[in-house]
From TrEMBL:
InterPro entries: RibonucZ/Hydroxyglut_hydro. This is L-ascorbate metabolism protein UlaG (Beta-lactamase superfamily). It comes from the Bacteria.
Amino acid sequence: MPLEETAGDSASFIGTATTLIRLGGFTLLTDPNFLHRGQWSYFG
């Protein structure tokens, strides 16, 4: 269920602390529990 939507942009609450944000051609999934404390995510 979108929280807010403007011209193709949206923010959708998925559950707990997870939110899917779409702005233009960019998509961001927030999930603060995706990694364990102290772990690093290496991009590329």
